[in-house]
Input
Amino acid sequence: MFSVQAYGDSAVLIEFGTEINEQTRLEILSFTEQLKEDKIEGVINWIPAYTTVVIVYDVFKISFLQLKRELEKVQIKVQDLGLGRLVRIPVCYDTKFSLDIEEVMLQTGLSRDEIIELHTTPEYQVHMLGFVPGFFYLGGLDTRLHCGRKEKPRIKIEAGAVGIAGSQTGVYPLESPGGWQLLGKTPIAMFDKDRKDRPFYVRQGDRVQFYEITLEQYKQFNL
Output
């Protein structure tokens, strides 16, 4: 079940407990899918996260109490969701791009090959998007790869860089600052505003699997 509370003067916060797990992810995904169908008047947008959903609404069309009553009627049907779309993302782990793999080797005690194998084996679940457009937060990183963030974050990380930090892994969709340990780079654009039908390469509810490509394959990928 979930709770509904005011979140400023034109938004509400829906809370699905406090634990980040698969059940909560499915409940949030089901909830947002149902919102699309219900089309509650006055609802402008919603932003899902690990254990919450923020809903922005038009106060001139619906009051907080009215919206709260409508939201509490939303039916969650977790069993109807299925597995979600599988998105396979190529990653080049060449030394040109694996800027922090030696640090990860020190923290985990694993070899380069073991790190790559453990990173490319799972099918990760997309819990949410945020930070910058197209940045997706994944669940399912092998515990043997869990490691700390960089003590001094980089001022600039190239778009496409693939990194890990703590129990997380993901892809920087745009050039930006960041403190994750970089393992490689993908030639695929995770965010492209000119790609009108699909600006975000990965969406909430998708599954993601990385696969290794060589430096030569990386160079040839977008030719």
Summary: The chain has a mean pLDDT of 90.
